[in-house]
C-alpha cells in the first residue's frame, strides 16, 4: 500500500540530512502516516529500531537501513534509490520499468523502495516507487536564453534518467540532444570521438561526479573556456578544473573553496550579470 511505501522510504531516509529528496520523503511520511503523527519521540519510529544506516552515495545511487521489529526481533533491510539500481537489486521488474518510463515522460522523477524478504538479508523485493516533481527553477529558461544570446553555450549535466533530462531540456528551450554519461567513458571510442560528442551534446544524463570533471577536461582540450556550476563536495574537482567555477546558493564549504565565484542568491540568473559586467570591464580596458 502507499503507507508501506512511505514507511519503508522513511526508514531508509537519512535523519537530519539537508537533502531536498530526503526532506520531501520525511515530510510526506510524517504528514500521512498515523504512527508518525502521534509518536512521543521525533527521532524514533514506533515499533521499529534502525540499527544501521548507509547514506546515499552518488556511485551506488542508493541508501540502505537495517531495521529491527521490536515485537518479534525480526531484522530486515530497506533500500531506497535510483529506479534502475533498485530494479536491478530486486532482480528485474518489467512493470516497474514501464511505470518509471511513463512517469519520466511526464517529467516526474521516480525513486525505488525495496525491502529484504523475511529470513534473508540479501534478497530484496520491490515495495514500490515514490514519485517526485523536480521542476527547473522559474528563472532557468530565461537565463539559458540570455547566455545563448551572449554566445555562451549551455550544457545540462544531471544525475537524472535520460528521458527526464530530455523533457526538462525541452521545457528550458534547449535541444534534446542529451547523451547518456556512459558516452564519456566509452572504452570503444577514441578520445577524439568522445570530445566531438561532448562538444555537440546539449547535456548528459545519469552522470556521477567523475563525469563532470571529464566534461570540463574534454572541452578545455578543445581550447574552449568552461564555466561549471556545482554545490556539493563531489563537484569540487570539476569546479577547480573549470576556467570559472561557480558555487551556487546553499553550497557546501568544499564547493565554495574550490570555486571562483560564489552565488549568494538562489537561481542562476546572476551568472548573466557576471558575463555582462566582465565584458564591460574588458571593453573599458581595451
UniProtKB/TrEMBL annotation:
It comes from Rhizophagus irregularis. InterPro entries: ATPase_P-typ_cyto_dom_N (IPR023299), HAD-like_sf (IPR036412), HAD_sf (IPR023214), P_typ_ATPase (IPR001757). One of its GO terms (biological process) is monoatomic cation transport. GO terms for molecular function: ATP binding; ATP hydrolysis activity; metal ion binding. Belongs to the cation transport ATPase (P-type) (TC 3.A.3) family. Type IIIA subfamily. SUPFAM superfamilies: HAD-like, Metal cation-transporting ATPase, ATP-binding domain N. NCBIfam families: ATPase_P-type. It is found in: Membrane. This is H+ ATPase. It comes from the Eukaryota.
Amino acid at each position: 500500500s502507499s503507507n508501506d511505501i512511505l514507511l519503508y522510504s522513511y526508514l531508509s531516509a537519512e535523519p537530519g540530512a539537508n537533502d531536498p529528496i530526503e526532506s520531501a520523503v520525511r515530510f510526506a511520511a510524517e504528514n500521512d502516516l498515523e504512527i508518525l503523527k502521534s509518536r512521543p519521540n521525533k527521532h524514533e519510529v514506533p515499533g521499529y529500531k534502525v540499527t544501521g544506516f548507509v547514506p546515499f552515495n552518488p556511485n551506488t545511487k542508493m541508501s540502505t537501513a537495517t531495521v529491527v521489529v521490536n515485537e518479534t526481533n525480526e531484522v530486515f533491510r530497506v533500500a531506497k534509490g535510483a529506479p534502475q539500481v533498485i530494479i536491478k537489486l530486486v532482480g528485474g521488474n518489467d512493470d516497474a520499468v514501464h511505470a518509471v518510463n511513463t512517469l519520466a515522460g511526464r517529467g516526474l522523477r521516480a525513486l525505488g523502495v525495496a525491502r529484504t524478504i523475511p529470513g534473508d538479508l540479501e534478497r530484496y523485493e520491490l515495495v514500490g516507487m515514490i514519485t517526485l516533481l523536480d521542476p527547473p527553477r522559474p528563472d532557468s529558461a530565461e537565463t539559458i536564453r540570455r547566455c545563448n544570446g551572449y554566445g555562451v553555450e549551455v550544457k545540462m549535466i544531471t544525475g537524472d534518467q535520460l528521458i527526464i533530462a530530455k523533457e526538462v531540456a525541452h521545457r528550458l528551450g534547449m535541444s534534446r540532444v542529451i547523451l547518456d554519461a556512459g558516452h564519456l567513458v566509452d572504452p570503444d571510442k577514441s578520445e577524439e570521438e568522445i570530445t566531438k560528442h561532448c562538444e555537440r551534446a546539449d547535456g548528459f544524463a545519469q552522470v556521477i561526479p567523475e563525469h563532470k570533471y571529464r566534461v570540463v577536461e574534454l572541452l578545455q582540450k578543445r581550447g574552449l573556456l568552461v564555466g561549471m556550476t556545482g554545490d556539493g563536495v563531489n563537484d569540487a574537482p570539476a569546479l577547480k578544473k573549470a576556467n570559472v567555477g561557480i558555487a551556487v546558493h546553499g553550497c557546501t564549504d568544499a564547493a565554495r573553496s574550490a570555486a571562483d565565484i560564489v552565488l549568494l542568491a538562489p537561481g542562476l540568473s546572476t551568472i548573466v550579470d557576471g558575463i555582462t559586467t566582465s565584458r564591460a570591464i574588458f571593453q573599458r580596458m581595451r
